[in-house]
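Its record is retained below.
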Amino acid sequence: MILTEVQAQGAAGNRARVAGHLGEFLQGRIGPAGPLALVTLPCPALTAEAARLPGRLALHQPGARMLSLPALRRLLTAAGLRAEGRFRLALDMPPGGGAGASTAARVAILRAAGVGEATTLFRACLASEGASDPLMFDRPERLLWASREGRVLACLPPLPRMEVIGGFFGSPRRTDPADLAFPDIADLVEDWPSADLPGLARLATLSAMRCLALRGPAEDPTAALAERLDALGWAIGHTGSARALIFPPGAVPCGAAEALRAAGFSRITRFRIGGA
């Protein structure tokens, strides 16, 4: 595990908020029989928030139900904690949407319980759900992450500055940890570290197109929207309904959100990432 260049996020204790993502820039196999890996597209606007008070084990979830009480017990045990405390978990992202809700929820709960060490966090998440996004790190987009193994395959350069607008299209789709039917993206991963913003957008588009060609859905409007709105490229949740259009900062055209809504997108969000 490499923590010198990409530091783990620390624990808040009692209360914690964890940002999710809006799909992935890249996701697929590194070689036809290689590990399943991803580069996440971080989204500060989508979050999971957890709080913990002393007491017997309990879980209150106002809104989307992410964890059962037995699952919470297993998660705490996997992190080496006593299964106790009154937890509150609130999600500002849809489960099964490709926004990292499952991992973000678990990391938020463990941080609220006082866990800050990255190895403990991702091992507990992996034991609990069989797969994990790298949301326990400060800069998850700087990791080539083996999501079924909880392993850093490479550290990546910082992202260039960009502006993203997107949302969710279609039905939710929860991650199946046993599902490895993804296209080979070894060539895209090789080109990623040296790419500029237009290059990164092109690589993300290729990853999305390969995934849709193999896994569907067949009638996805994102490519047409990207062309119509003159985006540099687009990205998807490779196992969810998240969709994102990639622009230079300040280049999102007027009416972009309305165009996404008209195409059937929900929960439209717009944000900037990358840079120093």
Summary: Helices lie at 69-78, 101-112, 118-129, 186-191, 197-215, 222-228, 256-262. The radius of gyration is 18 Å. The chain has seven helices and ten strands.
